[in-house]
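Give me C-alpha cells for this 245-residue protein.
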Amino acid sequence: MAKQKLKRFAEFSSWDNCFDFPYEIKGKWNKDVFKNSHPIVLELGCGKGEYTVALAKRYPDKNYLGVDIKSNRMWVGAKMAKEENLTHIAFMRAIMHKIDTIIGEGEADEIWITFPDPFLRSKSAKHRLTHTRFLRLYKKILKPGGTIHLKTDSDDLFTFTVNMLQHLGIQPIALEEDVHGNPDAPEILKEVKTYYERLFMNKGSTIKYISFNLSTFSEEQAIAFEEWFERERLRRVALGLSTGL
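Here you go.
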C-alpha cells in the first residue's frame, strides 16, 4: 500500500493535468492551463474525482478543476482524464480555507461541494464547507451570480445550510430533500453518483441537494449569523442539550 501511494504521489506530481499548491497560476487558469475561455467549475473536496470527470464528460464546453488535499485520491480521476484525453479537466492539491490564494477574483463560474465531511459537532461548524467562513472565500473567487451546489447525505449539514441561508436572507435556486425519490429532480443529480453516494444510498440514506448564489450575501449578515450561532450553541451547552446545530 505504501509503495502504491508513493507511485501515485510521483505520477500526480509529473502529470500535466495535476497541480500541487500552484499559487503562480492564480488568475491564469484559462490562459495557462485550459487554454480556452470556457467557464471554470470547481469541485471542492473532490476525493477520487469521479464526480469531476462525470460532469466534465457531460459538459465539454466547461473546464473542470477538482480540488482536494490528498493527491493519492485525485490520482484516480486524473488518470481517467488522461486515458480519455479529457483536456478540460485538471486536479489541484490545495487547502480549502485558502482557496482564494490559488483561484483569482471572479475566476470561477460554479462550485460543487459533493458529500463533504459534515463536521457534526457545532464547535467544529467553521470547518463545514458551506459555513459563512467559506462563503466569504467563494464570494471572492466566483463571478457575480456564480452558483454553489451542495450534494450531501447528511441531514445535519443540509439543515444547517438551509437555516444559515435563511439567516443570511439568501433564497435557494433549487432544493431537493430526496434527489432519487423525486421523479422531477434534474437528471444530472441522479445520473452522476460518487462512490460515497452509492455507499450512503445502500445504507438507506436519502441524498439531498441545494444550490444558491451569493448575490445578496453581506458581511454584516454573516457576522450576525455567526454571533447568533455561538449564542445558541452556548445556550444549549448550559441547558445540557445536544449542541448539534
